[in-house]
Design brief:
Elements (H helix, E strand, L loop, with lengths): L1 E3 H10 L3 H10 L3 E3 L4 H5 L5 H8 L11
Antiparallel strand pairs: 1-2
Helix pairs in contact: 1-2
């Protein structure tokens, strides 16, 4: 599944991971594939299944704004 960096950033933010948010904004590519970048995403405590479940429904999937 293709995801935008901003989707990952928002997911981390929703989990209260502000330090990881800053790191992700600096280090992650603008576009990622959950399979191809699984190792990179796992460094942020995110697995492909969690991303698909939370982001699979659209631009921000199941996330709600803060």
């Amino acid at each position: 599944m293709q995801i935008d960096k901003e989707q990952v950033v928002e997911l981390l933010r929703s989990k209260g991971e502000e330090q990881r948010v800053e790191q992700a904004e600096r280090e992650l590519p603008d576009q990622m594939d959950t399979d191809e970048h699984a190792d990179l995403l796992s460094g942020y405590g995110l697995g492909p299944q969690e991303l698909i479940a939370k982001l699979g429904g659209g631009p921000l999937g199941g996330l709600t704004g803060r």
